[in-house]
């Protein structure tokens, strides 16, 4: 499972595993992005007994949708990089207004 690889563990069980599965709703890309988000935000860390994390903080911080996750990432971009994000959006898909509003 790519999530285990992203988090650097051989097994992913318990509340964190359930949270990722529930939020990703079967979407492997979203599951991977959740794992990346948790690493980038330093919400999980590898300890002697496995992953260490504050379950309540993780549950509150993990975005509820792919769109929310991308919006959070776009918010962290420097204003100079926002046009790169907008140019990368497919011209054949409707651009999410929340991303456009965030990046302007």
Number of strands: 2
Average pLDDT level: 79
Radius of gyration using CA atoms only? 15 Å
Regions with little confidence, pLDDT below 50 for 5+ residues: none
Helix fraction, binned, reads 55-70%
Order of strands in the sheet with most strands: 1-2
Structural class: mainly alpha
Principal-axis shape equals: globular
Task: Summarize the biggest pleated sheet.
Answer: 2 strands, antiparallel
How many helices? The count is 7
How far is it from the N-terminal to the C-terminal residue, by CA? Answer: 36 Å
Q: Beta-strand percentage?
A: 5-15%
The arrangement of helices and strands along the chain is HHHEEHHHH
Q: Topology, pairings included?
A:
Elements: H1 2-7, H2 14-24, H3 28-40, E1 44-47, E2 50-53, H4 55-61, H5 66-76, H6 82-88, H7 97-103
Antiparallel strand pairs: 1-2
Helix pairs in contact: 2-3, 5-7
Please provide a written account of the structure:
By secondary structure, the chain is mainly α. The chain has 7 helices and 2 strands, in the order H-H-H-E-E-H-H-H-H. The protein has helices spanning 2-7, 14-24, 28-40, 55-61, 66-76, 82-88, 97-103, and strands at residues 44-47, 50-53. It has a two-stranded antiparallel ribbon. The longest helix has 13 residues, at 28-40. It is globular, with a radius of gyration of 15 Å.
